[in-house]
Amino acid sequence: RPYFGDAETEITVQQGEAAFFNCHVFNLANQTVSWMRTSDGYPLFIGNEKYINDQRFELVSRRRGQNTLKLKFTNASDAGNFECQVSTNPKISQIFKLNIIVPSVSVDGQQEKHVMAGSPVELKCYIKNCLKQPTYVFWYMSGSRLLDSGGRVKVRTSMLNTGVTALSVLSIDKVDQSDRGNYTCKPASGGEASISLHVLEGEKPAGLHHDQTSDSNQFKTHL
Predict the structure, then answer these.
(1) Per residue in 118-172, pLDDT tens?
(2) How far apart are CA 171 and CA 141, in angstroms?
(3) What is the rounded CA–CA span in Å between residue 69 and residue 24?
(4) Alpha helices, DSSP H only, in the chain?
(5) Any residues with CB less than 8 A from the CB of 148 and at least 6 apart, and which?
């Protein structure tokens, strides 16, 4: 009669990462191994046949008796139980519980940041409650992704000493009026946070717009 080997049945991953469910069955003989999603009883695989129309699920090990289900790009709604079943009568099953850790994302400071033209600026994005450093952290300016070309704009991401928080820093050398806009930090682990960058000219204090015409002409010369 088939029986299950020891397995890690509680799996915890960070949102966006892949989850692996390793189900080892001994004495399988001519029985079939299936994978079910417990929440709705939906079959994912029956034998090697895929039943779910979700490209994130795949069988990565098809060796006799070893069945590994992989779920790519996990998100919070994937949390729950998954079942490895053997078609004996009565059926036997091994339950795997999937926990998804969802980090929180915030940008350092207020929602707006003012900086003088010609000065450097750093925007800091904190990703808290991390199991590991996100695979990537993308920065966007007004919807367009910023690329770290090694020049004026740089992005560096690292884990802080606490081991549960990642920090991504966007640095811009010598800002000018073309750098004005809304900056958004988006890590692979999901979530996002934004901050507006305002660039000030000369000694003029923020909010003083006594001469709109000269302001707009001045901006054009810097674009």
Answers:
(1) 999 999 999 999 888 888 999 999 889 998 877 889 999 999 987 799 999 999 9
(2) 13
(3) 11
(4) 212-222
(5) 154, 155, 156
